[in-house]
Inverse folding.
C-alpha cells in the first residue's frame, strides 16, 4: 500500500473509535501493533479485480479504546498497557504485548533493592558486602527524606509517622530485599518487618499473631529452602531469571495471578466497610474469623489491603509489582492460591455483602455490576 494511504481496516477502526469519542492516528495504531499490543487487521481476498481488503480484528476496538484512554503524550504505550492489564482485566490484550509490557516494567523498575545491587558487589567478604549495602541505603534515606520516601503515596516521613522508627527499620528491609534475608539475619529481618508493619498499620498484626506468622513462614523456609515464600523472605534478585520467568509463564497463569490479586484487593475494601456497617452478617463474621485465625492470610491482607485506597497513580504500580513478585518468587503462586481457597466462600458472598453496604450508604451499583445483574 502506498505510504500515506489508509487501509480499509484502519479507516473502519478509527471511525468506530471516533464514534466513542476517542481519537487515534494511523501511526499510533501501527506503533501499538509493532509493540504487540494491538492485533493486526484481518485480510481477505475476494478475488479480481478487487484484490485484498482488510477489516479490524474483533478485539481491536476494545483494545485500542483502552490504550488510548490510558496513554499520555510522550509516555510509553507499555505503561498504558499495564494500566489496562490491571484496571480493565476484561480487555483482551494480546499475549505478546502483555509479556513485552511486563519485561519493560521489570527492566525499568528502580527500587531500593536495585539501588543496592547496582552499587554493591555480588561477591567478596560477606561482612564487607553487608556494610557497603547498609552505607548505600543509609545515605539514600538521608538524601531522599520526606521528598520521595513514600509507600502507596503516603510519606514515610510525614508528621504522623515516627521518622526515627522508619530510619531504623527501613535499611534492614531494603538490604534484605536486595541481598536476601539470610544476609541480614533472620532475627534482624523479622524485627524490622514487624516494626514496619506497625508503622503502616498499627492494628494489623499484634505481637501474638506476628509470632505465629513468623513460625509458619520459617517452617516453610527450613523445609523448602531459605527463600520459599514471597514478601516475607526476599532473596537476591536476578534480572535475567525474572525476565525468563515472564517469558516462559503460560498466559493463563499471568491472568490467574492478576485476577486473584484483584479479587483480594477488592474484597479487602468491601469487607472493611462491611465490618463497620453489617458486622453480624454471616459472610462478614466468617471473613473476620478467618483473618483472626489464620495469620498468613491476615499478613497477605496487611500487604494488599492498602492498595484498595491508594491513588490510581500509585495503585496500578503496586498491582503490577505484586503480579511480578508473585510470578518470580518461589512459593508465591501456591501461597496466593492457598489464600484464595481459604477465602473462596467469602469471595462468593461478596456481591451480596457489597450490595447491602451500597444500599446503606445510598450508593448505586457500579456499571459493570449493573450489567451483570
Amino acid at each position: 500500500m502506498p505510504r500515506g494511504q489508509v487501509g480499509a481496516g484502519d479507516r473502519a477502526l478509527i471511525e468506530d473509535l471516533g464514534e466513542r469519542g476517542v481519537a487515534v492516528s494511523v501511526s499510533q495504531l501501527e506503533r501499538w501493533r509493532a509493540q504487540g499490543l494491538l492485533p493486526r487487521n484481518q485480510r481477505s481476498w475476494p478475488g479480481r479485480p478487487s484484490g485484498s481488503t482488510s477489516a479490524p480484528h474483533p478485539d481491536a476496538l476494545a483494545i485500542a479504546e483502552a490504550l488510548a484512554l490510558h496513554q499520555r503524550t510522550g509516555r510509553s504505550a507499555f505503561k498504558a498497557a499495564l494500566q489496562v492489564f490491571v484496571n480493565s482485566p476484561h480487555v483482551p490484550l494480546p499475549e505478546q504485548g502483555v509479556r513485552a509490557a511486563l519485561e519493560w516494567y521489570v527492566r525499568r523498575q528502580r527500587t531500593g533493592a536495585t539501588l543496592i545491587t547496582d552499587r554493591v558487589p555480588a561477591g567478596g567478604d560477606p561482612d564487607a558486602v553487608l556494610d557497603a549495602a547498609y552505607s548505600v541505603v543509609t545515605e539514600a534515606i538521608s538524601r531522599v527524606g520526606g521528598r520521595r520516601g513514600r509507600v502507596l503515596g503516603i510519606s514515610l516521613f510525614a508528621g504522623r509517622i515516627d521518622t526515627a522508627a522508619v530510619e531504623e527499620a527501613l535499611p534492614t528491609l531494603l538490604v534484605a530485599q536486595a541481598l536476601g534475608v539470610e544476609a541480614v539475619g533472620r532475627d534482624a529481618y523479622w524485627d524490622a518487618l514487624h516494626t514496619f508493619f506497625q508503622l503502616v498499620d498499627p492494628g494489623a498484626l499484634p505481637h501474638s499473631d506476628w509470632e505465629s506468622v513468623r513460625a509458619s513462614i520459617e517452617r516453610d523456609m527450613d523445609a523448602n529452602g531459605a527463600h520459599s515464600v514471597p514478601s516475607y523472605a526476599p532473596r537476591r534478585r536476578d534480572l535475567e531469571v525474572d525476565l525468563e520467568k515472564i517469558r516462559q509463564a503460560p498466559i493463563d497463569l499471568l491472568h490467574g495471578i492478576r485476577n486473584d490479586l484483584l479479587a483480594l484487593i477488592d474484597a479487602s475494601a468491601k469487607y472493611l466497610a462491611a465490618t463497620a456497617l453489617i458486622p453480624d452478617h454471616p459472610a462478614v463474621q466468617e471473613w473476620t474469623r478467618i483473618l483472626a485465625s489464620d495469620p498468613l492470610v491476615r499478613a497477605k491482607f496487611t500487604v494488599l489491603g492498602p492498595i484498595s485506597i491508594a491513588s490510581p497513580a500509585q495503585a496500578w504500580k503496586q498491582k503490577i509489582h505484586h503480579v511480578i513478585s508473585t510470578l518470580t518468587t518461589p512459593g508465591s503462586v501456591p501461597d496466593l492460591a492457598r489464600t484464595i481457597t481459604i477465602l473462596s466462600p467469602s469471595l462468593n458472598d461478596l456481591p451480596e455483602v457489597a450490595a447491602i453496604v451500597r444500599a446503606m450508604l445510598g450508593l448505586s451499583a457500579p456499571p459493570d455490576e449493573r450489567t451483570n445483574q
Observations:
- Residues 112-200 form one domain.
- Residues 93 and 228 are 31 Å apart (CA to CA).
- The two ends are 47 Å apart (CA to CA).
- Confidence is low (pLDDT under 50) at residues 151-159, 224-234, 369-373.
